[in-house]
Design a protein that fits this description.
alpha/beta, 3 domains, 6 strands, 7% strand, 3'-5' exonuclease activity, HRDC_dom_sf
Length: 437
């Protein structure tokens, strides 16, 4: 039951003493810790066990974010009723096609599916159906939807999270890390059942089904001009310095990919912006800069300097501009100056969207992505016939990837915002003369 629908118990007074309840007991494994699956024989045994189980399969994957350049899985955890928990080392196998065959058409349960689906797909694993417990929590309006929070809220158990940021490419993996990983799938089945029941109770089960179906084909959006996400970029002045940030970022990225380490372990963003600000063209000046440091600062100093020299010789027209090129609408704060009518549409839509989100107890961005809303309101269909406009807006939203339930809920809201924005702004009334004067 979400926070919005929890009834107040009159026998539990709202006092600090009542709020200070004993902490929830720790979640523990129900069965002994399984061995890590690293051989073909062990994988065959796991496949037989999974195929012989019942109900959905809980799946999770551990990556080495912050340590490795790649986003591949370094451990895969599975649990199914009647099968138990299994820990599979994907590094030991060319692919996991036998496991995919064993799972078959069985529904997957994941938490934050967009994080794990790409790396699982690399191993030959792809769901025919899935249930995302994090997304279910968002649809139900839970204010915090992390796995540990949902488990404590709905199942009354605490989860340890001290190994969430470890290097999962380590071999052999320490036993405490493996226990932590196994606990991530320990109660996913129970959590799924509680959330599914609440989705039914609140009339959101069909919305969730559409969202889960869309997730099955999820692909990460390629980052355009990813170098612009360099921390501290806003402090860099001038197109040539921007060009230096871009060139150094791209060189660092290539080195990181080659070595399979996270880019920040070669050179931190702060070192890139320092070098780009001062634009030194010899090794001594570069290494003497305060703030130019990192494991690869001196090791690759010749390449950093060569890159800065290349940037120094680039024609002005080949240097990047401050504002990135975009095929979308301008930032919302620029609408009032660029198109006051569109700005009125956006303001009206935002207010209506906030009210609709409150009505359905979920974040506004879950009803419709902000990008889809802005694109629709910046360049709306030309017709102003309400019926034709509604059909055109619905088609536009479908083109942006909105699900049927989102189109149904938000199309009337956007149509009203478009028509409202086109209405002339009334002239302010002239001040009335003072009667006594």
């Amino acid at each position: 039951m979400s926070e919005q629908s929890v009834p107040h118990d009159p026998e539990q007074p709202d006092t600090p003493a009542a709020a200070e309840a004993d902490p929830a007991p720790l979640l523990t494994l129900r069965e002994p810790m399984p061995d890590v699956v690293e051989t073909p024989e062990a994988l065959r045994a796991v496949c037989e066990a999974v195929a012989g189980g019942t109900g959905p399969v809980a799946i999770d994957a551990e990556r080495a974010s912050g340590y490795r350049y790649s986003s591949r899985a370094y451990l895969i955890q599975l649990r199914r009723e009647g099968s138990g928990t299994h820990l599979v080392d994907p590094i030991a196998f060319d692919d996991l096609a036998p496991l995919q065959e064993a799972i078959g058409e069985t529904e997957w349960i994941l938490h934050a599916a967009t994080q794990d689906l790409p790396c699982l797909r690399e191993e030959g694993l792809s769901p025919s159906a899935l249930f995302d417990t994090e997304l279910a929590g968002r649809l139900l309006g839970y204010p915090r939807v992390g796995l540990a929070t949902l488990v404590e809220t709905l199942l009354g158990r605490r989860m340890k999270k001290e190994h969430s940021a470890v290097d999962w490419s380590t071999r052999p993996l320490p036993k405490p890390w493996l226990e932590y990983a196994a606990l991530d799938v320990e109660v996913l089945v129970e959590l799924r059942d509680l959330l599914a029941a609440e989705l039914e109770e609140t009339g959101k089960a069909e919305w969730a089904r559409q969202e889960f179906d869309a997730l099955r084909s999820f692909e990460p959006t390629p980052r355009v001009d990813a170098w612009r996400r360099t921390s501290g970029l806003h402090k860099v002045r001038g197109r040539r310095s921007l060009g230096a940030v871009k060139a150094l970022w791209e060189l660092r990225d290539a080195l990181a990919e080659q070595r399979d380490v996270t880019p920040g372990r070669i050179l931190p963003d702060s070192a890139i912006t320092v070098a780009a600000t001062h634009l030194p063209t010899d090794k001594g000046s570069l290494l003497g800069l305060k703030g130019f440091h990192g494991r690869g600062a001196e090791r690759y100093s010749s390449r950093w300097v060569a890159t800065l020299r290349e940037v120094a010789e680039l024609p002005e027209e080949e240097l990047p501009t401050r504002a990135p090129r975009s095929d979308g609408p301008p930032t919302a704060r620029a609408w009032a100056d660029r198109d006051p009518v569109a700005a009125r549409r956006l303001q009206h839509a935002r207010e209506a969207m906030a009210a609709l989100a409150e009505e359905h107890s979920m974040p506004a961005e879950q009803l419709l992505t902000p990008d889809s809303m802005r694109r629709t309101l910046w360049t709306p269909p030309r017709t102003r016939d309400p019926e034709a406009l509604a059909a055109a807006v619905a088609e536009q939203l479908r083109g942006y990837g909105a699900r049927p339930w989102q189109v149904e809920l938000t199309t009337p809201l956007l149509v009203a915002a478009i028509l409202h924005g086109d209405e002339p702004v009334p002239e302010p009334e002239a001040p009335q003369p003072d009667a006594e004067a």
